[in-house]
Amino acid sequence: MLKAVIFDLDNTLVNFWQFKQESAREASAAMVQAGLPMSAESAYNLIFKIYKERGVEYQLVFTDMIQPFHFPKAKFEKIRDAGIVAYLRKKGQVLRPYAGIPETLAELKKSYRLGILTDAAREQAHQRLNFTGLQEYFDAVGTLHDTNIYKPGIEPFLHICQKLQVQPAEALMVGDNPGRDMKGARAVGMKTCLAKYDPYFDNDGPAPDFEIEKPQQLLEVVKRIG
């Protein structure tokens, strides 16, 4: 019997890549205007070069961009802070849940315990939930800080089930990444559903039990599971 539905966060509930790209462009332009000696396009490309090397959740990207120039402290802080403020301002404007997500969560919450399982750090995960107004729907949030192990390691999946007080076989994992979300969930005995309403990571992973093209279709999936 299904008792819990667990969601990946980025690109499953919220438009992570859209906000990341638009916020990075805004930050790049602001840092160049504040004195960073490169074009806005070069700054944008450098941001994603650092993300590729350090991970897309890396929090010191603007510091790493500026340090090689050896600016005086005041100028360094002016450029860095211009980037941070512009990034956060744009993030607040752009970051949104996908259409149909709030309504789907509200309906699911009537019958199931709801959880988040993300590789994001705790602070970033809760920021995104608060920015998008989704925090009220969830009984538990599992982040990288809980186990310090990335998906598809089994520990995060077992931990979020413990927080929700359900067995893995009683939970459905919904995510956009077969190689992380589906693989890890399948390994512990969870049912799996691939979210395909945004470009998803079509990487190596087991075939999901279910696939959805729109968030609202998840309501039919849980009915089928019973």
Can you lay out the helices and strands and say which pair or pack?
Layout: E1 4-7, H1 16-33, H2 40-54, H3 61-66, H4 73-94, H5 101-109, E2 113-117, H6 122-132, E3 140-142, H7 144-147, H8 154-164, E4 171-175, H9 178-188, E5 191-195, E6 210-212, H10 218-225
Parallel strand pairs: 1-2, 1-4, 2-3, 4-5, 5-6
Helix pairs in contact: 1-2, 1-4
Keywords:
single chain; 226 residues; alpha/beta; Rossmann fold; DNA polymerase, domain 1; 6-stranded parallel sheet
What would you note in describing this structure?
The chain is an alpha/beta fold and 226 residues long. The chain has two domains: 4-14 and 96-225, HAD superfamily/HAD-like (Rossmann fold); 17-94, DNA polymerase, domain 1 (Orthogonal Bundle), CATH 1.10.150.520. It contains ten helices and six strands. The protein has helices at 16-33, 40-54, 61-66, 73-94, 101-109, 122-132, 144-147, 154-164, 178-188, 218-225, and strands at 4-7, 113-117, 140-142, 171-175, 191-195, 210-212. The protein has a six-stranded parallel β-sheet with strand order 3-2-1-4-5-6, with helices on both faces. Strand 4 (171-175), helix 9 and strand 5 form a beta-alpha-beta unit. The longest helix is centred in the middle third of the chain and has 22 residues, at 73-94. 40% of the residues are buried. The model has no long low-confidence stretch (mean pLDDT 95).
Strand content: 5-15%
| CATH fold type of the largest domain | Rossmann fold
The total domain count is 2
Structural class: alpha/beta
Query: How is the main sheet built?
Result: 6 strands, parallel
Look at the structure and name the CATH superfamily of the largest domain.
HAD superfamily/HAD-like
CATH class of the largest domain: Alpha Beta
- What's the CATH architecture name of the largest domain? 3-Layer(aba) Sandwich
Radius of gyration: 19 Å
Q: Roughly how much helix do the residues carry, as a percent range?
A: 40-55%
Strand order of the largest sheet: 3-2-1-4-5-6
Count of discrete alpha- or pi-helical segments spanning 4 or more residues: 10
Average residue pLDDT: 95
Q: Based on Cα principal axes, name the global outline.
A: elongated
Tally of DSSP β-strands: 6
Order of helices and strands: EHHHHHEHEHHEHEEH
